[in-house]
Amino acid sequence: MAFLYKADPARGAQWAKLFAQKAPDLPFHVWPEVGDPAAIRYLAAWQPPDDPTRTFPNLEVVFSVGAGIDQFDLSRVPAHVPVVRMIEPGIVEGMVEYVTQAVLTIHRNLFDYALQQQQQVWRELPPGPAGQRRIGVLGLGVLGTAVLERLRLFGFACAGWSRSPREIEGVDCHAGEGALDAFLARTDILICLLPLTPATRGLLDARLFAKLPRGASLIQTGRGPHLNQPDLLAALESGQLGNAILDVTDPEPLPAGHPLWTHPRVRITPHIASSTRPDTAVDVVLDNLRRHREGLPMLGLVDRTRGY
Ligand code: NDP
Ligand code: OXD
Questions:
Q1: Burial of 184: CB neighbours in 10 Å, binned 0-12, 13-18, 19+
Q2: Separation of CA 285 and ligand 1 centre (Å)
Q3: What are the protein's GO molecular function terms (predicted)?
Q4: Residue nearest atom 19 of ligand 1, based on CA coordinates
Q5: 142-152 and 89-107 are packed helices; what angle lies between their axes, rounded to 10 degrees?
Q6: Which of 53, 60, 65, 233 sits 20 to 30 Å CA-CA off 218?
Q7: What is the 8-class DSSP label of residue 171?
Q8: What separation in Å is there between the alpha carbon of 192 and the centre of ligand 1?
Q9: What are the angstrom distances between the C-alpha of 175 and each of 7, 142, 147, 172, 201?
């Protein structure tokens, strides 16, 4: 019985060290070194090999090393093999930090101060109270909820949108397509923390931007294909959107010379908003292995019908 890691090799080396300390009886391999393929019962991957159960005939569980699983071709993982996505404290904390800095950048007018600095202008731009800044998060899952719980502490007016009804203390929760327009109409800073599915692909487009108050800003930390990039550029040009902070693009990396790179109202980071932290993730994976052995539900089990 063995565990195989197939993602970034440097992180794989960290996982291997942690497994050696915490689960010394479970042999651990880092792709492309797989040992005996018949011994592989557990696979943790950013993208599994094309035909995982043919390559590893005794595979029992596939773990995603990321929170999102859109990069998986689920049709290649047979239904009897559960797919488990990453829910672990390190990735949550990283996302809370990233979105908080992005919201404060916008709230405290740092885009405008950057432009003023280029022109050597010393002029105060009062931000107004946090309670009058309306934050809206698309996606009230593990990450969206954690982000809102932190932003609430600053006093921002917080709301969120999900597929099914949710309740989060101090957050005005909206659910379903029918509630989207009202949610957008009250949102000054829109944060995308949705999974990428057929229903959410291309959601951030001109039609959606038109429903936001004029001058609203976007923080995009979901997946690149959620966003229609030409529509974003048009909305920034027209003033319908004020600023955009993009951690994900389509494609990644964003090609050299793309107009988003140099737009004065756009900040880009290279898909680093958050990532799985080996030290905290390995405990969660080992706990899930225990649950699996004991026939208990694993934390982060992907619902194939929903696609996330
Ligand atoms: P969860 O599965 O916990 O939450 C997803 C949320 O989105 C749920 O509230 C769900 O609704 C909602 N949702 C899904 N589909 C729809 C829809 N069609 N309409 C309305 N709401 C919908 O995911 P996480 O919070 O863990 O992660 C969210 C995403 O963040 C990941 O899938 C990934 O794309 C992105 N991510 C980005 C990272 C980065 O570094 N940029 C790092 C990690 C993740 P419901 O509550 O009803 O199920
Ligand atoms: C993830 C990511 O989904 O890093 O975990 O994007």
A1: buried
A2: 20
A3: NAD binding; oxidoreductase activity
A4: 163
A5: 50
A6: 65
A7: B
A8: 8
A9: 35, 16, 18, 10, 18
Structural domains in the chain plus CATH codes? 2-88+276-293 (3.40.50.720), 90-268 (3.40.50.720)
Ligand nearest to the CA of 227: 1
Token pair belonging to 290: 């225990």
pLDDT tens-digit profile, the chain (308 residues) = 999 999 999 999 999 999 999 999 999 999 999 999 999 999 999 999 989 999 999 999 999 999 999 999 999 999 999 999 999 999 999 999 999 999 999 999 999 999 999 999 999 999 999 999 999 999 999 999 999 999 999 999 999 999 999 999 999 999 999 999 999 999 999 999 999 999 999 999 999 999 999 999 999 999 999 999 999 999 999 999 999 999 999 999 999 999 999 999 999 999 999 999 999 999 999 999 999 999 999 999 999 999 99
The residue to mutate among 275, 280, 308, having the most atoms of ligand 2 within 8 angstroms of its beta carbon, is 275
Report the distance separating Cα 137 and Cα 99, nearest Å: 10
